[in-house]
Amino acid sequence: MRNVPHEQFKGGVPLTGPRLVDLDSRAARAHDSFCQASQSGWRFLVLAEIANFAVLRRYLGRPRADTLIVDVAARIRDALPDSRVEIAGREVAEIAFESEARLALDVAIAAIEVAFEVPFDIDGESHMINVQLGAAAAAAHRDEVHLIEEAERALVDARTEHVAIARDVTGSPAAIDRMELAQDLGRAIEREELFLQYQPKVHLRRQKITSVEALVRWNHPTRGLVLPNDFIPLAEESRDIVALTLWTIRRAIKDQVSLAAHGHDLRIFINIAGALLADTGFVSLACALVETSGAQLGFEITETSVIRDPDSAIANLNVFAGIGIVIAIDDYGAGLSSLAYLKQLPARELKIDKLFVTQLTSSNRDPLIVRSTIDLAHALDMEVVAEGVETQAAMALLSVMGCDMIQGFLISRPINLEALIHFLDDGKYQALAADVRAPFNRLATVWKRG
Ligand code: C2E
Ligand code: CA
Ligand code: CA
Questions:
Q1: Ligand at shortest distance from the CA of 332
Q2: Which CATH superfamily is domain 6-169 in?
Q3: Judging by beta carbons within 10 Å of its beta carbon (0-12, 13-18, 19+), is residue 145 exposed, middle or buried?
Q4: Domain covering 179-449: architecture
Q5: Ligand 1: which residue has its CA nearest to atom 46?
Q6: Which atom of ligand 1 lies nearest, measured to the CA of 302?
Q7: How far is the CA of 418 from the centre of ligand 1 (A)?
Q8: Whose CA is closest to atom 17 on ligand 1?
């Protein structure tokens, strides 16, 4: 036990009452920045455990040892007046606080360490209480359980390493990656790092490609190809989605002109993120682009995006439909499906989510869902597209079910404009689509279950 006599601290720091600012300049700086912190951004949890509890108990006796944690909590409250300090056990205090700066945690840990350099007056005797600190930092929205678990893990490490350990829940490599990617995205459009690929939709009865879907990709200078699922959600959070989608519309309009010059008149479908359906600025800019170009576009929207703000979404979809943009409902079946909304939407196409299509010929349930969706869409005067068609067997089954169009790796992966032009010129897909009934005979047992 480090039992430090009073004398050593004469002229030093009084034992009770002082705020952190009295302790020393390191802690004073710490306290200043701590107080400047606001209540958002990061949340922190520090577990302070009495490291020399067993030794103190032997010396002081159990009743007094059991109340040591009260002294510890009081000392920490003095050091960090803006935090919430609670006694979490006989040997452990919990310190919680928020800040906009990640650095606030290091500052707080330093402040606690400084505060415990001063001995405690216990029943007239001077004793050092040594604390070990395990801490965790997380983004403000992260759940508390996660934070506690990380702090506990940090405390376990602190016990063996004999230094304060902080674990960063938010600062996992993936989270840092996301932040960096979000920052880069803002510049990606100006630097022309984005590009479009197109995936055709084949009309089964007409055996013809009537439209293509534009899918955005990002050629990142250091990471290489980044796919949309990794950056569209970031763009939605940062509002870069507006500029990104307007760029996509412009690019698609230009590419449509190139396709037409090669003899291919195709409607180009663009994915429209939900947040944009209620954005009047976006709606008027998008309409202006489409109207002045005379392009033949389609917008793919999800039902979930309509459910967010149905009144403005439905009004804006009517504006789009009014200027000749074909509305398609994307990912049908993947999210919340609401027939009430479906009927109100000026949609001409319903795209069955690939979730149901990729397993179509191996599942008992999915053919039933797909079949009833096709019937429903037809009853509502919509054409049906099945996305994620990867096999001839799935294509054959869909054809028999009355599905109007198919899209998927079986026909083509998303490809660059030049490759699309070549693909259309070549016309090989027609033979594939013409073969549609042949493989179906082999599937009779699967379909009989329906
Ligand atoms: P989505 O609209 O459902 O697009 C279809 C996704 O499925 C594409 O992935 C496509 O490459 C993939 N896919 C196509 N055929 C098959 C198949 O036969 N099997 C399988 N397993 N997958 C297939 P991608 O290109 O990575 O796009 C992912 C999502 O990113 C899209 O899903 C769409 O929601 C979003 N997205 C893409 N481009 C844009 C855009 O310009 N704006 C917005 N807001 N979202 C976009
Ligand atoms: Ca889509
Ligand atoms: Ca889809």
A1: 3
A2: Reverse transcriptase/Diguanylate cyclase domain (3.30.70.270)
A3: exposed
A4: Alpha-Beta Barrel (3.20)
A5: 271
A6: 34
A7: 20
A8: 388
Could you report the per-residue pLDDT of 113-171, keeping only the tens digit for each? 999 999 999 999 999 999 999 999 987 766 788 789 889 999 999 998 889 999 877 65
Is 46 strand, coil or helix?
Answer: strand
pLDDT in tens, 307-361: 878 899 999 999 999 999 999 999 998 876 666 678 889 999 999 999 999 988 8
Question: Ligand 1: which atom is nearest the Cα of residue 409?
Answer: 18
Protein residues placing their CB within 5 Å of the ion ligand 3: 330-331
CB of 330 shorter than 6 A to ligand 1: yes
CA distances from 316 to 276, 309, 345, 403, 428 (A): 10, 11, 10, 28, 39
Can you give the residue ranges of every domain in the chain?
6-169, 179-449
* Ligand 2 center–CA 292 separation, angstroms: 25
Whose alpha carbon is nearest atom 19 of ligand 1? 388
Please give the model's pTM, rounded to 2 decimal places. Answer: 0.66
- Asked if residue 161 lies in contact with residue 130, where contact means CB atoms within 8 angstroms, the answer is no
DSSP assignment of 187-240: HHTTTT-EEEEEEEEEETTTTEEEEEEEEEEEEETTTEEE-HHHHHHHHHHHTH
Q: How far apart are the first and last CA of the chain?
A: 77
Check if 232 has its Cβ closer than 6 Å to any atom of ligand 1: yes
C-beta of 216 in contact with ligand 1 (< 6 A): yes
